[in-house]
Write a structure and sequence with these properties.
The chain has helices spanning 15-31, 45-51, 55-69, 73-86, 107-123, 134-145, 193-200, 257-267, 269-296, 303-308, 310-318, 326-340, 346-359, and strands at residues 128-129, 132-133, 169-171, 188-190, 226-228, 239-240, 243-244, 251-253. A hairpin with a 2-residue loop joins strand 6 (239-240) and strand 7. It folds into two domains: 7-200, no CATH class; 226-359, no CATH class. With 361 residues, it is mainly alpha-helical. The protein contains 13 helices and eight strands. Helix 1 (15-31) packs parallel to helix 3 (55-69) and helix 11 (310-318) packs antiparallel against helix 12.
Length: 361
């Protein structure tokens, strides 16, 4: 991830823990040979008045308890393990421990569990605190506290403002496999539509296709990565409009490599950066530099004089950050600057850069 969400977005994260508490209390009663408490007596007092009129909770909890009664002792242990593992957020995202998926349990219990937590997810848009539904309060806290309202999973797409049609709320751990965090805000992170639907989808962030357990970033705690293009050979990549582009080599640095690999695999980060940005925009970036240089200094300068202006352009025009994909643009220009200063190839790179200023304006 390129940044993580503020902890204040989790201030109203009470629904999932409370229903898990109710669910486990009912299971305890069944295991002791009794029955779960009646609705609404089973609800913790602090949230009883809010949840009392919502009989969907009662009916769907009853379905889970009924299916739980039919499990073997071993299956009951597996069901409890699934609840414990899945709700161990954020540690389950990056520890090496097990995490039981719901698909490993009997079908009746699976269906009842998914039904309850999908219903709970829907309730995030109707349960209100201070006149604002939980989901909107979470999004507003995020939107108002981050400096650049851009998807942290890709850095390519802007978020819509509060009050506009809602930005997709991604189940980071997919509800189809991990329903017991289906309404846990820690597992619910705003993501752009492209990340949520086109790339991540229902990918399992905890288990690779090979069956290996993997670690991933916590949307509310990081780690955060920086994109490094310094290993990209100039003039070795695709040809666009008669210009040979760099052969882009993207490294995600400043964080654990294993979690970076998971981020890249799940969201196709490197592929998207190369195809959708670097190959698509590099020439226009260079042409913008040429026009800027022409306005600042005029043509007729030497190749050395053109190259000497790159640091000022990077610092004053491109800057850093996520807006306008500057984190990729700045890295691309730093790559060109390094090429200009290279003791072996610098003269050729400076001449190439000079050509943009002289002929591409």
């Amino acid at each position: 991830m390129l940044y993580y969400y503020p902890a204040t977005a989790l201030d109203q994260n009470w629904l999932n823990p409370k229903i898990i508490e109710v669910l486990l209390c009912g299971m305890d009663a069944i295991d002791a040979g009794g029955d779960p408490a009646d609705w609404p007596d089973c609800i913790p007092v602090g949230r009883r008045e809010v949840l009392r009129p919502r009989y969907g909770f009662r009916d769907k909890l009853s379905d889970i308890w009924q299916s739980y009664r039919g499990l073997t002792d071993e299956q009951k242990q597996d069901a409890r393990a699934a609840i414990g593992h899945q709700t161990n957020l954020p540690d389950v995202l990056f520890n090496d421990g097990p995490c039981t998926r719901i698909s490993d349990l009997p079908a009746a219990f699976v269906k009842a569990s998914r039904d309850l937590f999908e219903y709970m997810f829907g309730q995030l848009t109707t349960l209100k605190v201070g006149g604002e539904c939980i989901r909107d309060a979470q999004y507003r806290a995020i939107y108002t506290e981050i400096s650049e309202r851009i998807c942290p999973f890709c850095g390519l797409n802007y978020f819509r403002a509060p009050g506009a049609p809602r930005t997709a709320l991604d189940h980071f751990m997919p509800i189809s496999l991990y329903p017991f965090v289906g309404s846990d805000l820690r597992n619910l992170a705003p993501a752009c539509d492209e990340c949520n639907s086109s790339f991540k989808g229902t990918s399992d962030v905890l288990w690779a296709d090979t069956g290996a357990r993997r670690r991933c970033s916590d949307p509310y705690g990081g780690p955060v990565y920086r994109v490094d293009l310094s290993g990209s050979p100039l003039f070795s990549g695709n040809e666009v409009r008669g210009t040979r582009l760099p052969l882009w080599q993207i490294e995600l640095v400043d964080g654990p490599p294993e979690q970076a690999d998971a981020w890249n695999t799940i969201f196709k980060i490197k592929e998207r950066y190369i195809r959708d940005v670097l190959d698509a925009d590099f020439i226009s970036w260079m042409e913008h530099f040429a026009r800027w240089f022409d306005r600042e200094s005029g043509r007729g300068k030497s190749a050395d004089e053109v190259a000497a202006e790159l640091p000022r352009y990077i610092n004053n025009v491109v800057q850093d950050g996520l807006a306008d994909r500057a984190f990729l643009k700045a890295e691309a220009f730093r790559l060109v600057l390094a090429g200009c200063n290279d003791p072996d190839d610098g003269e050729d790179v400076r001449a190439w850069l000079w050509g943009f200023v002289e002929y591409a304006v």
